[in-house]
Structure formats: C-alpha cells, structure tokens
Design a protein that fits this description.
The protein is of the alpha/beta class and about 350 residues long. It has two domains: about 1-150 and about 290-340, Quinone Oxidoreductase, Chain A, domain 1 (Alpha-Beta Complex), CATH 3.90.180.10; about 155-285, Rossmann fold (3-Layer(aba) Sandwich). The protein has helices at about 40-45, 125-130, 140-145, 150-160, 175-185, 200-205, 220-225, 240-250, 275-280, 290-300, 320-330; strands spanning about 1-10, 10-15, 30-35, 55, 60-65, 80, 85, 105-110, 120-125, 130-135, 165-170, 190-195, 210, 230-235, 250-260, 280-285, 315, 340. The strands form four sheets. Strands 3, 5, 6, 9, 10, 17 and 18 form a seven-stranded mixed β-sheet that branches. The protein has a six-stranded parallel β-sheet with strand order 13-12-11-14-15-16, with helices on both faces. Strands 2-1-4 form a three-stranded antiparallel β-sheet, covered by helices on one side. Strand 1 and strand 2 form a beta hairpin. Helix 4 crosses helix 5 (about 175-185), helix 4 (about 150-160) packs across helix 10 and helix 7 (about 220-225) runs parallel beside helix 8 (about 240-250). It is globular and about 60 Å long.
Length: about 350
C-alpha cells in the first residue's frame, strides 16, 4: 500500500509500505476513501515537530475491509469515519468518551504511534470505540471534519465557557479556527475573528463573525474597543504560537477564559502566572474528546444548524500529496483545507 511520509522539513513522499494488518481481535482495517491534511500535519512539514520519518495523517473516512473476531459493531463493507485520537475503549477513562483520558494512553494516528491515515489502508485498534458509521445525509466533507477539526472547534468553544450573547475572539482562521467560529456562533456567542490573511477573515465573516482587520498588533485594541474596554469573555487560540497566546491573554477580560487548541512547538511557553492569577484567568488546553463530540455534533450537522460547507477548498489524488502539502502550507486565502483521495 501507499503512505504519505514526511522525512524532513518540507520533504513529502508517497512511499510503498507493507499493507496494514489487523491490530488484534478488536481491531479493523479500513480502506481509506478520503483523507485530509490537518494543520497539525503541517507541524511535521514545517519542522516544528521534527520526528522523522513519520507516516502522517489522522483524518480518514472509508469502508471496513476486515474486522477482528471480537468486533461487534461493524462489518466488512460498512462506511465509517475514524476518530483522529484512539483509546482502548475498555477503561474508565474511555468510558467518558474522551480517548485522551485512556488509562493505556491516547494514541494519535499519523504521529508515529499509529499508522498514518493518508494511505490506502488504515489499521484501527478497538474498532467498536474508534469508528463511527457515517450516517445517511452526512457528506464526505462533513464526515472528515467530524474525525477531528469540527470536534476540535466544538471543544474549543465549549471549553471556552461560551455563553449566549458573550463576546468571543477566535485567533487563527484555518480549518479549526473556521470550525470554532461556527461552533461559537451556534452556541449563541458574538464572535470577533482575526487572521492575517484577508480571505480567511472574509470566510469567517460570511458565517456570521465580525472580522478584525489590520496587523496582529491591532487585535487587542480592536477587541477592547468592541467590548467597551472590558475584553473578550473568551479567547479561542487556534494557532498556538507564543505570539497568539500572548494576544489571547491580553485580549481576554478579567475572569475570562483562554481556550488553546492550536499546536505549540516543542519549546516551553513563558507563562505570566502572577498576572493570570491576579486577573482570575482560566486557561484550558485541549485535544478534542472526538468520540464525545459525535453525539453533540451529529444532530447539529444533520439538520443544518451547523454548516460545514466551504472548509474544504482543494482535492488532490494521493500521489500528488507533495503538491497538496505545499498548497496548504502556503496558508493562502484560497487554500484552506485539502482532501486527498487514494
């Protein structure tokens, strides 16, 4: 089978590797029909996470090709989506539907712990826990977003304590940021949104946000002006760089919440703990509880209360992965998120 591999910063290849095999009697093998490039994958590509070589990708939908003897909920031929983060499915942590709480340790596809989803076949452990049948009426694009980005945006908003009528600032308007904007609006918030790319701001504005213009240095004054000097009730940081975390702390009001879902690099962040304590700031850092979000998000997606259209802007065949990565890594106005078709 083929698997997209990052071997060094900016170095993408499609390698021939051994076929995925059943990861035990509770596992399954999924024939991947569509996969996607996530902003997290770019951290390998950009060199922020220099863990090479690595078969990448953690967002996939497809058809079950093989199941283990202990799998009860799925059969060969079922169309499924795969959770980006896998848990054992049997422990007290997984009982909360959050694989991050797995007592055996959460594992992310395409991180070196599990196979990459940008491939022809994907081995999925604990299939009854880590797979979800794609419901009728849910598009492939929406299903792919439910593997990670939409759940991450939803977790970013819910863990930001978003309340109806409150002002929320979203920093970074890539795929996760756009999902966070839509989720915060669905929860009744007034959303301010910023990204240095004008076209991405325009996309957020079309979905109901108020876009902040200018440079990153202009964001905090604009938020203070929009909130009568108080600051945003919550800030969602969908970037995770030192500069955006600094902006988040400066833009949030006292007693507010900073919700970080962007991926930081391996260097420590210098946290101004004294001022955070003095201002009673809540800081939450989140890997989405993807499995838990399915029950909350599927009804919203199915009846149109949460629009998932327009997030995917490009589609490439798997063998053009290098071209796709270069396009997404440009972080341009027109290329927000790319789908790869094996």
């Amino acid at each position: 089978m083929r698997a997209v591999t990052v071997s060094a910063p900016g170095q993408i290849s499609v390698e021939e590797v051994p076929d995925a095999t059943l990861p035990g009697p509770g596992g399954a093998v999924v024939k991947v029909e569509a996969t996607a490039i996530c902003g997290s994958d770019l951290h390998f590509y950009d060199g922020d996470l220099p863990l090479y070589p690595v078969a990448v990708g953690h967002e996939a939908i497809g058809t079950v090709a093989e199941v283990g003897a202990q799998v009860d909920g799925f059969a060969v031929g079922d169309r499924v989506l795969v959770a980006s983060v896998a848990g054992c499915g049997d422990c007290a942590g997984c009982a909360t539907l959050d694989p991050v709480a797995c007592l055996g340790g959460a594992k992310v596809f395409g991180s070196g712990e599990l196979g990459g989803a940008q491939s022809d076949l994907l081995a999925v452990p604990a299939a009854d826990f880590n797979l979800l049948t794609i419901p009728d009426g849910v598009s492939d694009e929406a299903a792919l977003l439910l593997t990670d980005n939409l759940g991450t945006g939803w977790a970013a908003a819910t863990r930001a304590d978003v309340a109806p009528g409150e002002t929320v600032l979203v920093l970074g308007l890539g795929a996760v940021g756009q999902c966070a904007v839509r989720c915060a609006i669905a929860l009744g918030a007034r959303v301010l949104a910023y990204d240095p790319v004008e076209g991405r701001r325009a996309m957020a504005e079309k979905t109901g946000a108020t876009a902040l213009t200018g440079t990153p240095e202009d964001v905090v004054p604009a938020v203070l002006e929009a909130t009568g000097g108080r600051g945003a009730a919550a800030v969602i940081d969908a970037v995770g760089h030192n500069a955006t975390v600094d902006t988040a702390f400066a833009a949030v009001r006292s007693t507010g919440t900073v919700s970080v879902v962007g991926i930081h690099d391996l260097e420590p962040y210098p946290l101004a703990l004294l001022m955070g304590t003095f201002r009673s700031i809540t800081l939450r850092m989140t890997t989405a509880p993807v499995h838990r979000t399915w029950g909350e998000l599927l009804p919203l997606v199915a009846d149109g209360r949460l629009d998932t259209s327009g997030i995917f802007t490009h589609t490439y065949p798997l063998h053009e992965a290098a071209t796709a990565y270069a396009a997404v890594a440009s972080r341009s106005a027109d290329c927000l998120k790319a789908m790869l078709i094996p």
